[in-house]
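Design job #97: recover the sequence.
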């Protein structure tokens, strides 16, 4: 199974720390994992980020798990939405972590925001999961609730995670462990 983990606005594969932490756990469990660096993270361009996702996965989302933190989640949705014969297969899962669905006061990300073709997106992944925190200073929990409703997905909310910038993210690892049906555990 291939897993792509996408960083967000003004971030990198090293920030937040849980991106590489999770990638290391998944690789140890035998998963092929990618954490690409998106171009221009301070002045992101939709087509550049979508191109990076498509190039990383060779345009093939079949049975891939796509995990996006913040703006990285919107880039994943934009990539899935694109009409492209090479990526017609369904992803195994899309998991968004603190991803905005509406304007959050960052002019640089406006082009990433919906409208999106929600019906098409529902056909592009077998499962949708959403992780949001009530105390996120950038992306309100209501954004996760909207995503879960529009994409028929599972929402997990927290009270104290902010914008999910911690070094580890045990709950997401456990969710993936269960979802991916990895025998045993990640050996924390």
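Job complete. Output follows.
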């Amino acid at each position: 199974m291939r897993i792509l983990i996408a960083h967000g606005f003004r971030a990198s594969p090293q920030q937040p720390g849980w991106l590489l932490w999770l990638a290391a756990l998944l690789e140890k469990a035998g998963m092929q994992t990618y954490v690409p660096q998106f171009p221009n993270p301070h002045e992101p361009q939709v087509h550049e980020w979508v191109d990076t996702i498509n190039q990383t996965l060779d345009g093939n989302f079949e049975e891939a798990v796509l995990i996006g933190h913040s703006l990285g989640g919107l880039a994943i949705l934009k990539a899935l939405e694109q009409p492209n014969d090479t990526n017609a297969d369904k992803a195994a899962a899309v998991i968004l972590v603190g991803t905005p669905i509406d304007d959050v006061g960052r002019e640089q990300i406006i082009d990433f925001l919906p409208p999106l073709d929600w019906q098409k997106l529902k056909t592009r992944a077998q499962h949708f999961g959403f992780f949001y925190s009530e105390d996120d200073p950038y992306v309100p929990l209501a954004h996760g609730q909207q995503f879960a409703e529009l994409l028929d997905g599972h929402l997990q909310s927290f009270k104290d995670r902010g914008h999910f910038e911690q070094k580890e993210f045990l709950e997401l690892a456990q969710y993936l462990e269960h979802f991916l049906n990895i025998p045993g555990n990640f050996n924390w």
